[in-house]
């Protein structure tokens, strides 16, 4: 065919996206098998890696070279090694490990997303915990192992953002914070480590307390971080100069989002700050695939949850009484919206 207007459009983007789960599954298997953790000890040949990971000869070379082509490994002179990012985030031995997020995608995501079409037709959640109309968290937390896997995954989801928030917000102006729906304490630990003058903690459902205690003890921060149990749907929020809500508002319908923002406003002292962080959708709703797909994830997983733009969050915060909320895109996938009570 000649190069003119009758030339068919490129099919490659469609063909690649339509089977993008191949790449996702390759990465998840690499995490599961410990590829990156093995390579954190040093570069290895194909035969050495095969031996250490217990891989059959047939798929091993394609698997490892696919990881090279996908940008997850380097190969030079027949030796495989981690990239700087996989060495930092996917070595299980490092405190910066986020592989639990990939394992959560495997455990819960694949199954629920297989039912996306049904969710789109019915508007109803499809995950095993929520398909009958249950609250995701209360339903999932009846199974201790499922709860652990989920909360470990949340640490993976939040760690890069937590480091970015610790650097981006003027914490020196405040002395106390509380992470509402703060799970095991991934953000709380990062804030406490980066800002030794801060004390704070996590407010979450009572079932989360032992996992928070384990995580905070591992980081040697029990003297500065506390756990407050409660249900933010039914009770007030504890007080602190800074309240944080990360990946919390997106779990709920608009009415509950507004309720949580009002509760945050009520709990803050004058000049207190609310930090909301989420995988924000761009205001034009046209370019932020991670934010829009996160919103579809809320469709398949929760009863009324959806993600939103920075401008929408600003509008809801203004309604709740906050002063001139501001939106900041952070280096990882999330953005943060900060509102102040009164003027500062
Ligand atoms: C999607 S996770 C986000 C966790 C964490 N903020 C992060 O960004 O990784 C939502 C959190 O809200 C908590 N949560 C859900 N329902 C709650 C409720 N009714 N009261 C208090 N916390 C709740 C969950 O236990 C979970 O830790």
UniProtKB/TrEMBL annotation:
Domain O-methyltransferase C-terminal: 113-322
GO biological process: methylation
Residues annotated as domain O-methyltransferase dimerisation: 20-91
Pfam family, one: Methyltransf_2
Annotated InterPro entries: COMT-like, COMT_C, COMT_dimerisation, SAM-dependent_MTases_sf, WH-like_DNA-bd_sf, WH_DNA-bd_sf
GO MF, any single term: methyltransferase activity
Keywords from the named record: Methyltransferase, S-adenosyl-L-methionine, Transferase
Domain of life: Bacteria
PANTHER family: O-METHYLTRANSFERASE
Record-given protein name: Methyltransferase
